[in-house]
Each structure stands twice: as structure tokens, then as C-alpha cells.
Amino acid sequence: MSKSEKYTVSGDEVLEKVKKLIHEGNIRRVRLIHQGKTIIEIPLSIGAPAVAVTIMAAPLLAAVGAFAALATECTIEVEKIEDDRKA
Questions:
Q1: What is the pLDDT of residues 5-19, one digit of tens each?
Q2: pTM for this one?
Q3: For residues 82 and 85, what is the distance between their CA atoms, to the nearest angstrom?
Q4: CB–CB of 31/41 below 8 Å?
Q5: Following CA atoms 28, 46, 83, 60 in sequence, which dihedral angle do they give, to the nearest 10 degrees?
Q6: Is 58 domain-assigned?
Q7: Using CA atoms, how far apart are residues 2 and 28, in angstroms rounded to an integer?
Q8: Total domains, the chain
Q9: Residue 3 falls within a domain, yes or no?
Q10: What is the 3-state secondary structure (H, E, C) of the chain?
């Protein structure tokens, strides 16, 4: 099961927020939305070690950084994996 969360951040905070979210480890997908349009979507492997995810996402993070330099404000939508074992 998964849930979505949205964060509105300024352009200079985008890259750091995306990196922080990826390192949380329970992220399935990250979308960068600007003016209602999805600019970048980063699918992340479920259960992949954090190092492997970071290596796979490195080119996309470079694109996020380039976009962030141009954007004044955008929304980061995150699809998180919920742990069903909680009860």
C-alpha cells in the first residue's frame, strides 16, 4: 500500500529536499511539478539499498538541479510505501 505527500518548495530548496526524500528509503516515486505540469518523475526501486538508488538517480538529480536553478517555486509529490505490518 502507498500514500502520497506533497511539498511546496522554492527553487533553491528543490534539490536538497529531493535528496533528503530519496535517502528516507521508503519512497516509490518522486514527481517534480511546476505550474501544474509534471516536469520530472523519478521512479525508485522498492527495497533497493540507498547507495544503489542514489547511483541510479544521479543523472536525474543533475536534471533536478538544473531545473531548480530556473524555477521560483514548485511542488514535489512523493509516493511513499506504507508498512502493512503495523497493527
A1: 999 988 778 888 887
A2: 0.66
A3: 9
A4: yes
A5: -30
A6: yes
A7: 8
A8: 1
A9: no
A10: CEEEEEEEEEHHHHHHHHHHHHHHCCEEEEEEEECCEEEEEEECCCCCCHHHHHHHHHHHHHHHHHHHHHCCEEEEEEEEECCCCCC
